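Title: Prediction job returns without error message
Component: structure pipeline
Severity: low
Priority: P3
Assignee: unassigned

Description:
Job completed but the reporter wants confirmation the result is attached to the right record. Sequence as submitted:
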Amino acid sequence: MHPLLRFAFCLALCGTLFAAELDRPPPGAFTVVVIPDTQGYRGRATKSTPDSTAPLTNPVFQNHTRWIVENLRTQNIVFVSHVGDIVDVNNEEQWQLARECLDRLHGVVPYGLTVGNHDMKSNGDASLFQKYFPSSRYRHFDWYGSTYEHARPDQYVSTHNVNSYQLFSAGGLDFVHLNLECNAPDDVLAWADLILKRYRDRRALVTTHMDLGPVDKPRDNDGFVTAPKGRMNWVKIHGVRGNSPVQLWDKLFSRHAHLGFIFSGDQSRTTALRLAARGQAGNTVHSLLSDYTSSGPLRLYRFVPTANQVQAITYDTTRHEIVTSTRYVPDRAEHQFTLPYLMTESPAARLR
């Protein structure tokens, strides 16, 4: 081979290797993984292949949980959150496969699940989610806090792990993490408010399905791509009881000084979006949308306490490469970025 060709080949090969290689966190750093919507089911009775008779599969979901387990130590992964739309069609077969995918994490790393609009009926009926991921499945773990409960007859709505919280610690920091269903109603928000007040000495994280995307409900498919984006002002679930993301911010999120991050999905044609907003106590809350169309990427949040920074890393667990561009969001800076987050001072100290 000509020396110049050999050199070009080596450059191409090394570039590929470096693109696929994810560096290790610095000493004292730790990682929170956020799994985007996992709607990429293929095979019979799926939206993507409705006429297929092939067995049901979801290779991207399998790759996500496999990669997480294989990289627990190298990436110091301390918590995993799913933003919702765990399934694409709310049926037994997809829930069974979702359970198989998530079983890989069970008992290995603390994790929380968010119920998206595809995971329940429009009235909030989440009975299939409750069947496959009931609160009883988690109560023996010391990191599992509890779940919202009510005494109404409609026990299939909002209860039994549909809304839950988890506790974990890493890097000398204590966290409380809330999973809130899509368009959580006021009774759920009252419970969440009590949880956040109870753990005001911990740093708070929230995952809810809808937060950022088209501000107003698009009138057509093109609007999901071109309409102005920010915190959404419309709902999909619970009818008049459902709270829009704007209402969630006003009624709950803005009122807690120790809340630092809101993770969400739901909007694949927005794909990746972030918004920094000021809470009532003057604290900065980072809202972070990641919905990569079930195509392979997930989001890693690398907390680096010594630098008071959180590094957002979008990584494709199927292609094993850093994500720098997508169809709707070509800008690398929307997929790989760093956020300021004060970790050398306790939340309680900021309240004094």
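Comment from assignee: result matches the submitted record. The chain has one domain: 29-351.
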